[in-house]
Description:
Elements: H1 6-18, H2 21-28, H3 32-46, E1 51-53, E2 58-60, H4 62-90, E3 98-104, H5 109-120, E4 127-133, H6 138-143, E5 149-154, E6 162-170, E7 172-177, H7 190-194, E8 203-204, E9 217-218, H8 221-229, E10 235-238, E11 249-253, E12 260-267, H9 273-287
Parallel strand pairs: 3-4, 3-5, 8-9
Antiparallel strand pairs: 1-2, 5-12, 6-12, 7-10, 7-11
InterPro entries: LysR_HTH_N, LysR_subst-bd, WH-like_DNA-bd_sf, WH_DNA-bd_sf
Pfam families: HTH_1, LysR_substrate
Domain HTH lysR-type: 4-61
Amino acid sequence: MDTLETRELRYFLAVAEELHIGRAAERLGMAQPPLSRAIQQLERRLGVLLLVRNRRGVALTEAGEVLHQEARVVVDAATAAARRTRRAAAGNDGSRTRLVLAVKAGDSHDLLRRLLGAYSAEPDAAEVEILPSGTCEQGEMLRDGRADAALMHTPFNSLTGFDSEELLTEGQIAVLPARHPLAARATLTLAEVSDIPDLPLARWARDGVHPPGPGPAITDQTQLAQLIALGRTVAIHPDSARAWLWTEHAAVPLIDGPPVVTHIAWPAHSRSLALAALVRTATRCTDAPRPDPSA
């Protein structure tokens, strides 16, 4: 049988991600025996073995790996459909349509300020809710429907599967404690920043996992700002991150950091008129000349 239910795909995803029936059952809030039966029934319906059971838990077969990837897409799409449908229906009671824009906390501050100001002046502008995210979380927020659009940054974010418009290109900076000796440098290199004995690089999670390394595992922007101010870590950001720096911070340009390109991205299948208007406004306000702050 080729038809699969969203419920059984959610069950399978929990097992595939936990690699343990007991932990998956606890995560789902159900007993272990019915979860085991549901997975066995799924295997019988597909006519394939998805899991190999062992004393430690389970392992995915090659077929299980394929279903793991495919099921994530399907479940995210179903979740996104439900979330966006509810947001669309919210405007039927006479209230304004609402759009959720995911942004990496601390980046693109000036661009975001100009975008929101210009869009709010548009006739019939939707209400825009800002959803802060960590590194590389914007894509996941678009896929599962938590966000309708996102400001994403290449080469750090992948735009695969999304439509997008390029908005801004900028350099990168190292954010250090203001009292650190390297804070007085005019420029730094990536190698120098990656090899400061007393300042290990901060580690943001990617796909929910912090990369290995001696630096602190960062969960939010406030934590990062405080640890830099305390002299415990250094971070690399686009130049626009200067907007959130404290007096205890210093920003030093990276001469060999690849340019960071900010895009506004959205699901490729979107037909939202409010979203289309937001994208048009974003491209217009980045095309317009910026005021000279020294004038």
